[in-house]
Design brief:
alpha+beta; Neuraminidase; 18 strands; about 45% helix; about 15% strand; elongated
Length: about 450
């Protein structure tokens, strides 16, 4: 007998709750500031996309910018809501705004909440130092990883008072908050350069590797007397610091960082990292030329080289063959290679093995069923297509010539078939397209043209 009453009571409760929510939303919307008959959110929509809720194009946003400035500090409550929205509260924040177009744009699940924050950052930027009263609440948003990026960008623009609040993010327990704070200070603030340098040097002790790397990046270009000795010291400890970023930061000083050249050269000849080459070129071209010659004569076939092949052998090692090295000192030049090496991913070590019979660039390679590696095609030093093919035998580390293809295939792929034969697709360039496919028979070492239908 009590069940209908209970259901009525629940319905009444839900209805009252819905009415309260509706009243709250309508009340919040009524509190949104307006200028010349348009609510703040409509002016923000114009600033963001250059059109109104009705689709009318606004080519000049001068009036919209002036509208935000005229509303002044009265916009702060709404802008704080926008800046503090997260994935859970975004819909509630949007429901309080009057602009239909603004609500619809950010209701779209494909538009990230960060983009909504960017709108708040833009509006706070128009207020300038008039937004200083909002600092205590923005400071709270800085402490939350979901809202810290927008908060940091606003604080950066508020001068010394904002900077003082921003530095609180450096002591946050969340790695992301500290990282965003370093990014904002290093890339967006107009703080004194020496102050920024001290902040970045202190951040080199941050427990998070990503944050230490950020600090290294923004230490570059500061006072050389302060920064260069610190950066040099970091090169001695590659386990705790990304020395490729250290090298790039040093490169910002040009010849003034010449004391770093011996260490950069040593790291380069041990790791052959292309970013270190860029650093050497910025600091000392003579040293960079020396490094390029080392790469051409004895460097491993890593990412400093191009258009080589990598084939995983049955023992887990990788056969790296051929390719080209592009050097720029004293002039642009391409060095085509016949060299081959074995890379052991377990130890990270490179071992030289027999050279191919032909220098190749843009060639193809595949592991055969018998454990040998077939390499075919590509281009030679003059850019001519190659028809030749050869086999690598891991047992003896040597190459032997096998049957040639009927046409010069390059920049394509070879596929091992179930029957052990190898299919080469067309290939070539737009100026010289190759339509035919060819099939290699390892049992007799010959190729057969397969018509491309």
């Amino acid at each position: 007998m009590n069940k209908p009453r209970k259901q009525t009571s629940r319905f009444t409760f839900v209805l009252i709750l819905a009415i309260i929510c509706l009243v709250a939303v309508l009340s919040a919307r009524s509190s949104e500031q307006s200028y010349n008959g348009k609510p703040l959110s409509e002016w923000l929509l114009i600033l963001k996309i250059g059109s109104t809720s009705t689709g009318e194009r606004v080519e000049d946003d001068t009036e919209a910018r002036e509208a935000v400035r005229q509303m002044g500090t009265n916009t702060i409550p709404t802008l704080l809501d926008i800046l503090g929205a997260n994935d859970r509260s975004k819909l509630w924040v949007l429901s309080k705004l009057k602009s239909k177009g603004f609500r619809e744009m950010y209701h779209n699940p494909n538009v990230p909440t960060d983009d909504l924050h960017d709108t708040g950052v833009m509006a706070f930027g128009l207020l300038g130092t008039n937004a200083i009263p909002a600092i205590p609440k923005i400071k709270k948003l800085l402490g939350n990883w979901e809202t810290c990026s927008g908060a940091a960008q606003v604080l950066v623009g508020l001068g010394p008072a904002g900077w003082d609040a921003l530095t609180n993010g450096l002591y946050n327990s969340d790695d992301n908050v500290r990282g965003v704070t370093l990014w904002a200070i290093g890339s967006k603030s107009s703080m004194d350069s020496n102050v920024i340098a001290r902040i970045m040097i202190a951040a080199l002790k941050d427990p998070d590797m990503v944050n230490r790397t950020t600090a290294i990046r923004y230490l570059g270009g500061r006072d050389p007397a302060v920064a260069i000795p610190v950066l040099l010291h970091l090169l001695d400890n590659p386990k705790d610091y990304d020395w490729t970023v250290v090298g790039l930061s040093l490169s910002s000083y040009g010849a003034a960082a010449k004391s770093a050249v011996p260490k950069l050269l040593s790291l380069y000849t041990n790791h052959w990292n292309i970013e270190l080459m860029w650093a050497l070129k910025a600091i000392d071209m003579e040293a960079a030329a020396q490094a390029e010659q080392l790469m051409v004569n004895s460097g491993p076939l890593n990412k400093a080289r191009e258009s080589y092949t990598t084939t995983v052998l049955p023992n887990g090692k990788e056969l790296i063959a051929g390719g080209v090295i592009h050097t720029t000192i004293p002039a642009n030049n391409n060095h085509y290679l016949a060299s081959a090496e074995l890379y052991d991913p377990k130890t990270g070590k490179w071992t030289e093995t027999g050279e191919m019979t032909t220098k190749r660039d843009g060639h193809m390679a595949v592991l055969l069923s018998n454990g040998k590696v077939l390499v075919a095609g590509g281009k030679d030093e003059k850019g001519h297509g190659l028809t030749s093919a050869e086999l690598y035998d891991p047992a003896v580390g040597q190459w032997t010539v096998t049957g040639s293809m009927h046409d010069s295939h390059w920049c394509e792929r070879m596929v091992l078939q179930r029957d052990g034969k190898v299919l080469v697709y067309g290939g070539g360039f737009d100026t010289y397209p190759i339509l035919s496919h060819e099939l290699y028979n390892p049992a007799i070492g010959t190729w057969t043209v397969v018509t491309n239908k």
